[in-house]
Amino acid sequence: MKVSTIAFSLFAATALAQTKPVDGKFSLLKLPYAANALEPVISETTMNLHHGKHLATYVNNLNNLLPGSGFEGLTLEEVVEKSEGAIFNNAGQMLNHDLYFTQFTTPADDRKPVGKLAAAINEQFGSFEEFQKEFSQKGATLFGSGWVWLSTDKEGKLVITQEVNGSNPVKRGLKPLMGLDVWEHAYYVDYQNRRADHLAAVWQIIDWNVVDARYSK
Ligand code: MN
Description:
Layout: H1 3-17, H2 44-65, H3 76-82, H4 85-101, H5 115-125, H6 128-141, E1 146-152, E2 158-164, E3 175-181, H7 188-191, H8 195-201, H9 208-216
Antiparallel strand pairs: 1-2, 1-3
Helix pairs in contact: 1-9, 2-4, 3-4, 5-9, 6-8
C-alpha cells in the first residue's frame, strides 16, 4: 500500500469525526477522487448529481435551519444525536453522505476487508462472503428510502442495521463504519430499478483501509 493512501485514510476518518460548523456553516465535502473515478460502478453523472446536487442541498438546508435552533456550534454527529424533524433529516443525510463518499476508491475485483476489521468480520460472520450476503440482503430488502450500515456497538461488536430515510447509526448509539445508500437517487441513473445489482457491484469500490481506520480508531 502506498503511504499516501494510509495518510488519506487516517485523515478522512479523523476529520469527519470532528466536523464542526465554521462561522455557523457546515460545508460541502470535497470529493477525495475525480467524479468519474468510480466508473462503471457509479457513473460520473450519478456522482455529480448525488454529491453536487443532493448532498449540497442537505448541507444548504441544514445551514439555513441552524440559526436560532439551539444546535449551533455542535459537531455534526451531536446535531444528529440531539435533533428531530427537518434538522435531523438534513444533518443525518449530511453525515451519511460524508461517510459514504469518503469510503470509496477505484474499482477492483478483489477488494476485501483488511487489518483488525478483517479478523472481526471473520470471527462474527464466519467469512467475508457471509457478511456480504447479510449486508446486501438488508440493503435489498429495505422498503423505500434509507441506508444499510455496518457499525460497532458500545462493546465493539459489529452490527448491520437498516436506517430509514436520513437516519444514521449514531442515533442509536452505534459507531458507523461503512454505509450504502439505497435511496433511488444513489443508483437509478445507472441501474434503474435493479437495486440488488448496484449493491453487488459496490463491493468493487469499498476502500477497506478507510473502513478499518474507522473501526480501529
Ligand atoms: Mn444519497
